[in-house]
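The records we work with from here on pair a chain with its fold. Taken together, the tokens spell out the fold as the letters spell out the chain. To see the layout at work, look at the sequence and tokens printed below.
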Amino acid sequence: MNDVRYYEQFLDVEWESFDLGKTTFRYYFTHLLRTLLTEGEGFSGKRPFGNSGWDFDMMTGVVQIGLARGGYDREYCEWVISEDHTDVWEHIWGLFDAYTKGVAL
């Protein structure tokens, strides 16, 4: 498990989500869980917010808040991730652990 205390400081840093607009990871995780509970069996793991690519959206959020290397490509108007996606997911899990206060799942 990642260091929960380290990631807590990043939960409320704002970033721009393709699906939700300006958000934080605390809100993103809450909205994702609320959508799952509200939609029940109709929940789409591929398109929880209406569009596919929500997992990449979270990955670009990690770049935007400064946890992973990357940047915004003005020519293509998109976020670019400059490190292995496995490393980026380690940050997402660290944020999730901080969100859940380190409760083992």
